[in-house]
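Hello forum,

I keep getting stuck at the same step: I have a sequence, I want structure tokens, and every attempt I make locally crashes halfway through. Rather than fight my setup again tonight, could one of you with a working pipeline run this one for me? It's a single chain of 398 residues.
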Amino acid sequence: MSLTVSILGLAGLVLIHELGHFLAALATGMSPRRFYLGFPPALVKIKRRGVEYGIGAIPLGGYVKIPGMHRPAPSDLEVAFRPAVGERPRLGRIVDRLQRLVGAGEMDEARRVLPELEEEVGEEKLSAPAHRAAERGLRDLADGLGDDAYWRQRTWKKVAVIFAGPGANLLVALVLFTGLLMQDAWQIGVRLQAAPDNAATTKIEEVLPATPAQVAGLRMGDRVIAVNGRPVSARALLDMIAASHGTPIQLTVRRGGETVTTVVAAERRGGLSLPAAVGRSAEITYRVSKEIALFFPRLATGEGASEVSSPVGITKVSSEALDQSFSDFVFVLGLISLSLALLNLLPLLPLDGGHIAFSIIEGVRGRALGRELYERVSVIGIAFVLVLFVIGLSNDVG
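Reply #2:
Ran it on my machine without issues. Output:
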């Protein structure tokens, strides 16, 4: 059951990412053509105000189609209409004309000629594969030539639509962290020292005033080594305090060269206020983002390879967190959402960060970059993502 919930949680984060793109595209006038829960092909679909909504056959994440992501190229027409021209050579005349117009950048003229090609394709008797390819080519070309095509928009609009995906994941992480910090919890009033890897140790860094810990005589520098006679880790210590629900527990601490035993009863304390929780969640987000940013230089030297995980490992970790408690699962889900946002902001195509970088370059140049350049640069990004996946999968399997 926990594995299923973890998979759904991960799929939900991907869906939220795509929903961010979808809503931003609607808001900026780039009317999306499709929005699916899951990935195509569609099991069920319905069209409303020019948008096709559907449930995809692949039940993971979501899918949004924004019109005209790339400037149309002559090669697009060659691929789409080659089967139809092979069966009905007379279509070659109008296809060649459109190729010349697109290649010359005369997009408005190409849009005026497009209905002629639509009419001629409709009149010809084509085989089913050739007809499907031609119909798909006509739709894609109409999208690419339309006023709402992505590539034709102003730079700020393109950046806003692309950033909205990672931005949605970033917002989810902040909301989840904030919600957790506002929860009531059973506490004894100590802060544990942070280790170099940011994981708390059992060493007490601070004893808060007027708390059960102060009443029980705990001191800064004490190291908790056992609860009710059982050795504990920092994680287990926090869990046992939370699970005690105020029942007195016996703590064994190492103080200098002595071993001291004391009894303490946790008290239920309110979570942080909304402003304080937002500030603290922003701090957590900053610290985690900094660690992730420092990871990539370590990866380049081979030192960070052991830290890479694939969706298999991510699902396993979130499932184990759910087995511990729902709060642990929510926190891990927030970390995954944050990681998803930061990974997508890397300036590599086909990641969102690559599209943002190219949009800025095109804005500075004053004209769109060619499809061929997008495809060549995308090879680098795809190779990088595949390498990460292979390393992560080998770590998870190992």
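Residues 308 and 388 are 7 Å apart (CA to CA). If your local run keeps crashing, start a new thread with the error log.
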